[in-house]
Amino acid sequence: MSKVATSACPLNCWDSCGFKVTIEDGKVLKVDGDDSHPITKGKICGRGRMLADRTNSKERLLYPLKKVNGKFKQISWEQALDEISTKLHEYKEKFGTTSILHSHDYANSGLLTNLDQRFFNAYGGVTELTGSICWGAGIEAQTWDFGDSYAHSPTDIQHSKNIIVWGRNVARTNMHLYEVLQEAKRNGANLYVIDPIPNATAKIAHKYISIKPGMDGLLAIGIMKELFRLQLVDNEFIDNFTLGFEDLEALLQSVTLDQVSEMTEIPLDIITELAHVYGDCPTATLLGLGMQRYDNGGNTIRLIDALVAVSGNVGIPGGGANYGNKQVGQSFQFNELTLPNMKKTSRTFTMMKQAEGILNAIDPEIKMIIVTCGNPLTQVPDTNVVKDAFSSVETLVVIEQFMTDTAELADYVLPTTTVFEQEDIYYASMYHHYANYAPKLVDPPGEAKSDLWIWTQLAKRLGFGEVFDFTREQFMEMSIKDLAKNGITLDQFKKEFHVELPVQGVPWEDRKFKTPSGKFEFTSQLAEKKGFNGKLTASLPKESVWNDKPLAEKFPYTLLTIHPMRSNHSQHYHLFPVEPKVRVEIAENLATNLKLKENDYVQVWNERGTIEGYVKILKNAHPNTINIDEGIWSKYGGVVNRLTPSRESDNGLGSTLYDCLVNIKLLS
Ligand SMILES: Nc1nc2c(c(=O)[nH]1)N[C@H]1C(S)=C(S)[C@@H](COP(=O)(O)OP(=O)(O)OC[C@H]3O[C@@H](n4cnc5c(=O)[nH]c(N)nc54)[C@H](O)[C@@H]3O)O[C@H]1N2
Ligand SMILES: Nc1nc2c(c(=O)[nH]1)N[C@H]1C(S)=C(S)[C@@H](COP(=O)(O)OP(=O)(O)OC[C@H]3O[C@@H](n4cnc5c(=O)[nH]c(N)nc54)[C@H](O)[C@@H]3O)O[C@H]1N2
Ligand code: SF4
Ligand SMILES: [Mo]
């Protein structure tokens, strides 16, 4: 007899879907959408469905493994935990706790996943990662401008007259927004897509605007110039609720419209048209993460924020500079969960430069790395250096479900559970404001254990077992404690499975911003306090003809490495029925100029590395642009991050993954 249970998607994604999971004989048979979820409404993507295959896969890690003479050998949990805790104890005694690096990303959006931080804090504080490869620059940009990064609720978009999807690959990465866009179109809204690649969302847009990668800030400058010329700005908002307008004005005067058009490679009339669109409020701007993965990424998002502000689209229904929605995560009690006060010492490396951090660390050197919820060997830029770094330490421990590129390098691999094998509450601070409860549905295979069980066992052996002397239920209670004043309880989560969090649907409606001045800041006081120049600039990508001509002559094409359709980063490729291949997607002008045909085998390279793959011609993609989807494992020929730079963006310790010049040639 099969039964259907309610669950939730744990993947790092905009949508945070509700699931219905069919279970038979203690096994997950299939994963479908939960019709009753108010936002995701019964629809899920293939990555969500494939979580059944991930859970049942024969390739699951089932036992603790230890590398002996270069080969993995199965060991007992007892041995693994004893040996790892002994090392943690010895390293602490000899070199101090910061000789341990905790390398992680956000592969699981469960609240209790954060308990890894609780472990490392109680241990005394380790070397931690700061910043974010994912969205760091944009979050910092919005923090400088508004005081935080808040988005409008998904339903608010039905108030928009115009919608600009700016560097977000909605149909692929944020599927429920795609449906909302179609509905808004049916209700009469006009849809514009600005992107170097004419993605599936561009196909349903009234207008697709092809832009040279990394030039969006300049485009925003051009649109603002036209808004002022056409007198379509909101003077009341500028006069009463903003700071630093004179600096913005001076910047707008320093660039001509012809320069904007020439450098963004967008015709003048389109810039004017976009000014009319922004002036015709309410216009919603839906920002993606693509255009902030450049050296000038933070400034880009700030210029678009400024455009949204001067056009009067801040704090009104149907408007907004919608990027992250940090109000969602702010609903939970992370301090109680992670106990930052227990940390006695700490050191930080940035996520981007973790490899350099490891290789250059002195006093103490990094002796041990523990990896959770991340696969740095495929996902962190400049893979060749990452590999050197992760190979250089005495002890590498990876907590994983599968033998990933990172796990392959490990000294100890500890098998962990999937979403259906443990209870948790899931949320995403990206799009909607519902958190989802997922109970434990099946037993884990082999000896796989939850991450929490592993921390609990290690904590006991290290003498701080009491810090983990709570049940999952108690930890969940702890994380939602503050929501009690809104009448939200764990019982409600367990009964209803998705709970609406008390956040604002139209942020900044009261025109009270969380910046130091309380205003929207064109010139950021917070930035200045942190030692940056708080003014907006007309900065350009680093790997560009303007900033590095010799490099641009040697490597004339921009390489994007956007998120794959059917995999969440590196998590699904190995489950595809047909083995994945590296697809090198090229703009048509490259095919013509270099005489490349569909399926030709090519090499793409720069000074950091090289990759080979099969040509796919991208019709209407911006000239001189190449894309190779990120996430493919090295065994399938992938790891495109061998080519990407590990520089940090202009603010927020974000990434510069797409600020990457390459060359390409036909092989054989
Ligand atoms: N299928 C799938 N969905 C996912 C994920 C996944 O791996 N697979 N990952 C999830 C995660 S962690 C994240 S962070 C989100 C990311 O979600 P998105 O922000 O939608 O995804 P990205 O792949 O980062 O790229 C977004 C778009 O930016 C465009 N772009 C690149 N450079 C520029 C530029 O200079 N200017 C402009 N205007 N556009 C540019 C790309 O062409 C692409 O269409 O997706 C989430 N959803
Ligand atoms: N070139 C390029 N690189 C990129 C990007 C890009 O656009 N281009 N995007 C960047 C972005 S936006 C992001 S968010 C990062 C994502 O980077 P990662 O989060 O490192 O990527 P994932 O492939 O999701 O790998 C996470 C690993 O965590 C494991 N895992 C899943 N659930 C759990 C769990 O509950 N416990 C434990 N211990 N492990 C678990 C999975 O098996 C998987 O191997 O990649 C970044 N890298
Ligand atoms: S990956 Fe995203 S869209 Fe797909 S099921 Fe999970 S939350 Fe939903
Ligand atoms: Mo991400």
Question: Can you describe this structure?
Answer:
This protein is α/β, with parallel strands linked by helices and 668 residues long. The chain has three domains: 65-133 and 339-500, Rossmann fold (3-Layer(aba) Sandwich); 136-323, Dimethylsulfoxide Reductase, domain 2 (3-Layer(aba) Sandwich), CATH 3.40.228; 549-666, Barwin-like endoglucanases, CATH 2.40.40. Helices cover 31% and strands 19% of the residues. The chain is built from 25 helices and 27 strands. Strands 5-4-17-16-15-6 form a six-stranded mixed β-sheet, with helices on one face. Strands 22-26-23-25-24-27 form a six-stranded mixed β-barrel. Strand 2 and strand 3 form a beta hairpin. Helix 3 packs across helix 20 (451-462). The longest helix has 19 residues, at 77-95. The structure holds ligand MGD (2 copies), iron/sulfur cluster and molybdenum atom. One ligand MGD is lined by residues 12, 105-108, 113, 133-134, 372-375, 379, 399-402, 404, 416, 451, 561-563, 568-571, 630-631, 640-641, 644, 657. Its cofactor is Mo-bis(molybdopterin guanine dinucleotide).
The gist of it:
This protein is an alpha/beta fold. The chain is built from 25 helices and 27 strands. A 6-stranded mixed beta sheet has the order 5-4-17-16-15-6, covered by helices on one side.
